[in-house]
Amino acid sequence: MKNNFLLLFPALAVLGLVTQCQSSKPATTASAATTAPAATPATPKEYRYESVAGDPLGVRIYKLDNGLTVYLSDYKDAPRIQTYLAVRAGSKNDPATATGLAHYLEHMVFKGTSKLGTQDWAKEKVELDKIEALYEVYRGQRNDPAARKRTYHQIDSISGVAAKYAVPNEYDKVMGAIGAKGSNAHTSSEETVYQEDIPSNQLEKWAAIQAERMQEMVPRLFHTELEAVYEEKNRGLDSDFNKEFEALNAALYPTHPYGTQTTIGTIEHLQNPSITEIKKYFGQYYVPSNVALCLSGDLDYDATIRVIDKYFGALPSKSAPAFNAPVEKPITAPITREILGPQSENVMLGYRLPGKATRDGLRLRMMDKILTNGQAGLIDLDLNQQQKVLQAASFTDMNDDYSTHVIYGTPRQGQKLEEVKGLLLAELAKVKAGNFPDWLIPAIINNEKLERTKSYESNEARASAMYEAFIERVDWKDYLKQQADFASITKEEIVKFANDNYGENYVNVFKRTGTDPNKVKVVKPAITPVPANRDVASNYYKQLTAMPSSELQPVFVDYKKDIQETEIKPGLPLYYTKNSENGLFNLYYILDIGTNNDPRWGLAADYLQYLGAGQYSAAQLQQEFYKLGCSFNVSSGADRTFVTLNGLDSNLEPALKLFEQLINAPKPDAAALKNMVSGTLKSRQDAKLNKQVILNAAMVNYVKYGPKNPFTNILSEKELKALKPEQLTALLKKLPTYQHRVLYYGPQELFKSSISGEADKKGEHTVSIGGIAGLLLMNHRTPAKLTPAPAAKDFAEQPLKDKKVYWVDYNMVQTEILFLTKGDLYSKELVPTVALYNEYFGGGMGSIVFQDLRESKALAYSAYSGYTNADKVGRSNYNLSYIGTQSDKLPEAMAGMEALLTDMPVAEANLEIAKNAIRNSISTERITKGNILMSYERARRLGLDYDLRRDVYASTQKMTFDELKKFQQAKIKGQNQVILVIGSKDRLNFKELAKYGTVQQLTLKEIFGY
């Protein structure tokens, strides 16, 4: 899903936003071109760039001779670089007769080229050409099922021959070997973007392989990858939200591709693909003038642009086709659509507005924040805080040609969707009437500045902003200026904008719980698995990975040096790390108390948001925090409670005083509790309609602990309704009285002593302790002696000795399967082996599991397996394997996963890649800033006083495959396992399930406890 990073930059009204054309100086390490002895050495090429005065990211924008745009930002937080390769082409550019093409092309770009991913290109090409021609024949046989079946059999047969010459996942292996993270891509209406987070010393290898991918696209392993896309389509068919949003867009945009075609494409088009059309699309849009490289991280501007030009500069210059956006007719009356599905009900209202790079686009952003900003928006306070609905929010989908404003709400128990719709429209009416406080817009502007300041710490956000500007076709200086323009928006302007754009011109989608009469699925084709060829490599791979690169040494956290520890008062420790980058803070009170001690803790934490304190009502408190640029949260898990305050450090003192007042003297509110209890009961019913909650929370906890487990450790409906407000406020008041620890990351000094100017009668001066320690001493209210945490309920882990298959009936297209095996108790000595095993076996797109089940056998879109270390001493490790597949593929999917778990394939090449991935990843990771404190918090739960990555880095490089095999055979192979299945009863193959153990259906009441 695309993220909107338009909010990344601060208002720059006072800065000179003048575009500067400059040139990079020659890199001192660049070598001159080879010439005859008497010739004058060639002058190193200079690279001109644009930059903007006052740009907080220091972005330089280059344009190569062939038209490729390059954005660079230097940020030395860690020796890594976030990279995006952005193409101005998305699903709106798909031919109307071949929807889903841009997305499918995105998948194929990972398959390599005539150099990458092949053992013998000459022989492979002959077979691939045959396959391409056969697909054109196949498309023409839509009305002749028998002929299509014969043609597909030919495609499948020839694909097996072609696959003998292929090297599957070779791109993923390269990226894994160099220590890249987050290897992925996405396609949306406007764009296709490829992303990698790479070590800075691997820049040249990254540039070489990305330029190679830009030169050509080879559609190898086409029919197995098409199956992965089918599975992705099936996942969408199982998502009520996807169906709802598609219905909304179809009604809003009956003419524009935003509504007439989806990114994933129709089943009809997926079943009739054209390799010829995909190649044509690649040749049209994947051209330098239509592509940008966006890099942020530890880089040298001059050296980086030279490397990029070295590899990308040779790509031929070419223009991409222009897109002529269809013009939609105005909507003159509300349009209503109805969607049925198994998940919980909601109502969604959508308005069509101008594109994002307009003044109206900025007004839409402001309108969205006035309605929902998480704290003080109209919907936040009027609907959510007052509990008039179960949940409501506003969000935007902003694109180049048009933007969509969506307002949605989920009903409380017994509440009709029509009533929720009325409440949402009433909030819009308040904006149209100007019925919102004058301070709200300035507060929104200030809070967005704060959010952008925080986002400066993320290379992902920095680089994303660059590609957003490129996709929008907005000059960087104008992109930055949007923040100054946003800050200039007035209340009068918003009121006029609301009245001009929010009338009867909306689409209303009612999502109701029921059986979808239009439910379809992609039919399983007959596919012969293709060879994985794990131990072979292309010559290109060998040459690329042999390229020299400088060594980077790991830097591990030294908790004793990187964290200062003191006591605010006896028995109350403070752990401190200074923020030297900006003016933001994070403050935590952490208690080793949770719902295992008392299930009411979670309810008390939720109740706090509905309470006032002192002179403030609950809504007024939220407004005050928002004005201060601060926010608070209390969350209670099974065995820990986090009390969090964060925001602008210059306002920490008033925010802390306000928060301490709330936590120590919350005002009981009977009406708020009654509504919260009602909402909790409705949320519990909705959870039973959510397949992810059913599988990953309810079923997993049932198997690990039995019917009485941390997930079902909740108050009954009778107990909930009997709760008194004073019971929960009493719990909240006790929070500061229990033993806890305080963590602070911010710009204040730990201590700051000051001496009064005048001496007392004895001639002594008063010394006051300032800094964060002094601030907390004065304002964090605790008793003289803290109370130990009360005893917690012990949920014993089940032995899992019997082979069982538990299943839950759910109306869905796919079937999702978990294989669960209980391991040993946590041991730090096992962690390095586990790290290498996971990287090798099931941890990513280059892993054994992914290669076998998706690439070779086309059984799933998502498949993984991992041995999970416990997060606390005394708890067990577990091996968890997952595959989501079409129901008619269940036998092959289960057999495939079971075979891998039983006999782990031997692939020495993959093992070396896994080792390199761990080495390069750890050597370039840097745990910094507030993450130091959280790292220490995780370590202390495991009984550690040092950075465990040190052991992983030292041990994994010496491990042999025999050691890995020994681990696998001892901990995974042949171990008793429990299999969890969620799927539609009328599609599940129970005879097949019975092969893996005793089959038992679980009811929702059994696994939820209500």
Structure description:
The protein has 1010 residues and is an alpha+beta fold. It is 40% helix and 19% strand. The strands form 5 sheets. The chain has an 8-stranded mixed beta sheet, sandwiched between helices. The chain has a 6-stranded mixed beta sheet with strand order 14-15-19-16-18-17. A 6-stranded mixed beta sheet has the order 24-25-23-26-22-27, sandwiched between helices. α4 (170-177) packs across α32, α21 (600-607) crosses α27 (725-734) and α29 packs across α35 (961-971).
Concise description?
The chain is α+β, with helices and mostly antiparallel strands.
Give the arrangement of secondary structure elements.
Blueprint: E1 19-24, E2 47-52, E3 60-63, E4 69-74, E5 80-87, H1 101-108, H2 121-139, H3 145-163, H4 170-177, E6 181-187, E7 192-199, H5 203-215, H6 222-237, H7 240-252, H8 257-260, H9 267-270, H10 275-285, E8 291-297, H11 301-312, E9 335-341, E10 346-354, H12 359-371, H13 378-385, E11 391-398, E12 402-410, H14 417-432, H15 440-455, H16 459-472, H17 476-487, H18 491-501, E13 506-513, H19 539-545, H20 559-562, E14 564-569, E15 572-578, E16 584-591, H21 600-607, H22 618-628, E17 630-636, E18 641-648, H23 652-664, H24 670-687, H25 691-705, H26 717-722, H27 725-734, E19 740-746, E20 752-755, E21 767-770, H28 771-779, E22 804-809, E23 814-825, H29 831-841, H30 848-856, E24 862-868, E25 876-886, H31 890-902, H32 908-924, H33 931-941, H34 949-956, H35 961-971, E26 978-983, H36 990-993, E27 998-1001, H37 1004-1008
Parallel strand pairs: 4-8, 9-13, 15-19, 22-26, 22-27
Antiparallel strand pairs: 1-2, 2-3, 3-4, 5-7, 5-8, 6-7, 10-12, 10-13, 11-12, 14-15, 16-18, 16-19, 17-18, 20-21, 23-25, 23-26, 24-25
Helix pairs in contact: 1-10, 2-3, 4-32, 5-11, 12-18, 13-14, 21-27, 29-32, 29-34, 29-35, 30-31, 32-34
